[in-house]
Amino acid sequence: MSFVQKKRLTFGDYVNYSLLLLISFVCVFPFLYVFSVSFTDPATYIPLQFYVFPEKWSLSAYKYILSTNSFINAMNSTVFITVAGTFLNLIFTFTMAYGLTKTGLPGHRIMMRAVVFTLVFSAGLVPSYLLVKQLGLLNSYWALIWPSLTNAWSLIVVKSFMDSLPSELEDAARIDGCTDLGVFLRIVIPLSMPAIAAFTLFFAVAHWNTYFNALIYLSDSKKWTLQVLVKTLVIDSDSNGVGASGASDQGRVPQETIRMAAIMLSMAPILVVYPFLQKYFAKGVMLGSIKG
């Protein structure tokens, strides 16, 4: 019979655990504050006072902000950009990465070098803005989608993943009369589901959190994304960002609770989706980084 001897904690272990607990508290504290304030009843809300849970629960802030046109427009804009952008990102990334795995393809080396070049060097903000302007995409949702259909890092990771797939499967499919498109759709795509799930999360989070490009390219406030609206709510102290200044709803809903409710609503979709894709998240990235 073997006995497992428990490791005695040293002074260094206690210091490390204490630091980790402190860092965890610092990270969790803002979320607790936002959550608590957003659900606090306006009648019991006291500015700058923190509760782990609201003294009296209320959905007043959520009801108010969900009834405003500004938030609904921002939500619709963000959903459209996220869905359309993620779908197109997946198509362009995986089709191009599959092409890059074919070393015998004419121009393969030139294309691969161009991809690596963009990984190291970027044109910058001004050329990007001029390109979007010349394409006539200013103040359009497509200004946030077309210029970022794919990126070098995603292409390299997906290409590495596809390189690890057994080439014998493709050869067998071609012997059975499958075309290149059929091999891609029937063999490569089904085997790439872990990578697709991982990059779906990558692309969706990136589009959902679009802020800087939206601030530059979208001049119409009706087309603002959620992140731009939340910025207006949180930073612009003279307005609550949803069509009223100061206290809203005839003074019954404090401005601070509206801000925190907007932050919670902007985070909620990603927090809901992430647990379902978490198992594919790590698996997809690891498979894409190892060539078998």
Automatic annotation (TrEMBL):
GO cellular component term, pick one: plasma membrane
PROSITE patterns attached to this UniProt entry: ABC_TM1
Domain of life assignment: Bacteria
Subcellular location: Cell membrane
Record-annotated membrane-spanning stretches: 14-35, 79-98, 110-132, 183-208, 258-277
Family: Belongs to the binding-protein-dependent transport system permease family.
Protein name listed in UniProt: Carbohydrate ABC transporter permease
Source species taxonomy: Bacteria, Bacillati, Bacillota, Bacilli, Bacillales
